Amino acid sequence: MKLIGNLLWHFPCFGFVSAFIIYFFGLFLTITIVAAPIGLGLIELGKFLLWPFGNSMVNKTESSGVVSAIWEAYSTLIMILYIPFGILFTIIALFQIFFLFVSIIGIPAALVIIKSLGTFFNPVGKKCVPYQ
Fold it and tell me: What local confidence, expressed as pLDDT, does residue 106 receive?
């Protein structure tokens, strides 16, 4: 069933295009270093969008220490600056979901976007993990 869902996501709905756009946008943000926390989250979202049925997005567990505390504080600051873009991306995704549900073939693609709504809004600290 996962294979059928992934095939429907990629070929009639061009999910691989979304995956590559999000992945390379995340890579660009990571290269800028200033927006690295957002870029790392978007890279994970790109991985998720490449094989959405069989994976899920979860919050990373952070280790303790001075460096991780500084990274967490910096990530929070960058996330506050990202909120207007996150709201915009979430609204666009909601419109996509609505229009995909109109057609029968678009329902699997709409389910993928529904699974990734939280990551569109807040990509900081997210990780793509397989599930059984």
Answer: 84
Q: How far is CA 86 from CA 2, 43, 128, in A?
A: 28, 15, 19
The model carries a pTM of: 0.88
b vs e for 49-80, b when ≥16 Cβ sit within 10 Å of the residue's Cβ? bbbbbebebeeeeeeeeeeeeeeeeebeebbe
Structure confidence at residue 40 (pLDDT):
93
Question: Residue 50's pLDDT band (boundaries 50, 70, 90)?
Answer: very high
Angstrom distance (rounded) from CA 131 to CA 85: 29
Query: Bridge partners of 58?
Result: 127
